[in-house]
């Protein structure tokens, strides 16, 4: 079998990049092992322009956020499915000083695309928000499990997906082609999250795996928007609420932990005045984060037919649409990857 591009992994990164390659008229083959840990499948899928305890604008927000909804909408059309949920996010203020600060920022041109409304008084009686809060727009979430499942079927129908473990010892690099078992391709691209840490080509890249845990639970409060302060709380179409997430570099091998569950519930209790009725699911994933919290894009410094598109961490839903476009420009048009995300920044010396 001969293809233009062989992609390793069909998490969010491999899904987005293979779709863009197909849209560009390229022949692709994706190798994926569904049973392997996929951080994409346990992520909440949130995209949020204002993040962190200090409520700052997300990195490269003005470039990244205009790409998000159009890209997932395009995927919805191609797959004839629904998994994009544009929703506003309500973030309560912690004190009157924060309220005053954000009332001032709400008129700044750099923030206006992301601000819907500032509330100076309690907006929800069910939320701990005595100082009001800010309603954000250009935000929401993606149902990643549905997206990945639907796209897997899409690839299978094209004969473009092999569900098996990728065994790098069978990968050969020739002058202008790469070979893998009975497959020949012009290039191979590693989109396999933390699996790339084991690759002989990318062992030098400083991945810093991060564990995150989330809960699905029942609670009698169904706002139209996402509530986010300390934890996010998303009301799902099935009536459950998804709450999370934790962030730790420890307990990687322990699965879901009681300490993470308690941490999430304690933070939720400080945010929502309504008791939790029942915890339905408790899941965890290991995110492919990086040392400088920026993704890895580009070609191997020696083997130019070997590339990587990886390391998106907890913000993959936001970052992947923009950076998959940049990756396509490199792969097809020969454009250079921006230095902040180019793997050359970690080249061996």
From TrEMBL:
GO terms for cellular component: cytoplasm. It holds the Pfam family DAO. Residues 4-330 form the FAD dependent oxidoreductase domain. InterPro entries: FAD-dep_OxRdtase, FAD/NAD-bd_sf. It comes from the Bacteria. PANTHER family: SARCOSINE DEHYDROGENASE-RELATED. This is Glycine/D-amino acid oxidase. It comes from Aquiflexum balticum DSM 16537.
